[in-house]
Amino acid sequence: MRPGFLLGEIANGLRRNASMVVSVVLVTMVSLFFLGIGLLAQAQVSTAKGFWYDRVQVSIFLCTPDATEVASCSEGAVTPEQREQIAADLESLDPLVTEYFYESNEEAYERFREQFRNSPVLDSIPQEAIPESYRVNLSDPTRYEVIRAAFEQAPGVESVEDQREVVDKLFTFLGVLSVGALALAVAMVVCAVLLISTTIRLTAWSRRRETAIKRMVGASAFSIHLPFILETVIATVAGAGLAVALLWATVRYGITGFLSELLAGESGLISLVGPRDLWLITPFLVGGALLLAVVTAWLALHRHVRV
């Protein structure tokens, strides 16, 4: 099949079925948008867990040079002797303390930069402002107050925190958002499959004479089916492009822009997904849409176009 003739066939098909093509574009856009929102919500859970997982444990944050307003940090940054004493006190609380590990300032700062990579004030936070810490696992998390009482006023300790309830609510919300978006995406994908199949059937019926002539002159099944498939692919690519653009706008202006400022307040510190996370899932969104479109179109052609 000559490229010029094939392009002409595709252009005529898109023009004659403009309303159906627009419908495929819109349904594809909406379904991929909701699918993308669901995947980004799952990525947000993973991103948040990287920062918040330690907060499900008990975190003993040690003094930084600037924490002198705290009574236990009046001498400035934690000293090696104070650090060793805190570790010894943790050892003495066995079996309540099942495990603990120390995170240095360098490790904390590296993790901080990774988790808050999309924060607008990331570069304004100096490394020395990020506290060292001990992360503590408890055999009975309900006995958190024992750890608080033992270490809250200890020399070298800035604060003791356990945000289990906050984290649980956050992850529950994100999980519900993810499941809801994926459910809507599945429903829209079903609509897209039905719409593509209907579009192929109507297009095949409107071109039944052309198809009959092609069969009479010995055209292969592939050459007859190819224009239909490419028209579907073009509509799907257009819908996928619009969905990615809409997702980018949502991430850029809604999440890392407005939502980041709303949740972070003056500090600007909030661990959120960003454009990089979107670009990671984009190949899967577009590739999956194209594969679904080609398979659906091919099956519909075998059913409605006899060669």
From TrEMBL:
Transmembrane spans: 21-43, 170-196, 217-249, 278-301
Residue ranges of every copy of the FtsX extracellular domain listed in the record: 56-160
Protein family membership: Belongs to the ABC-4 integral membrane protein family. FtsX subfamily.
Subunit structure: Forms a membrane-associated complex with FtsE.
UniProt keyword Oxidoreductase present: no
Keywords: Cell cycle, Cell division, Cell membrane, Membrane, Transmembrane, Transmembrane helix
PANTHER family (alphabetical): CELL DIVISION PROTEIN FTSX
Domain ABC3 transporter permease C-terminal: 184-301
One Gene Ontology term from the biological process aspect of the record: cell division
InterPro entries found in the cross-reference section: ABC3_permease_C, FtsX, FtsX_actino, FtsX_ECD
Location of the protein in the cell: Cell membrane
Function (record text): Part of the ABC transporter FtsEX involved in cellular division.
Source organism superkingdom: Bacteria
Protein name as it appears in the record: Cell division protein FtsX
Stored Pfam families: FtsX, FtsX_ECD
Lipid bilayer topology: Multi-pass membrane protein
Species name: Ornithinimicrobium pekingense
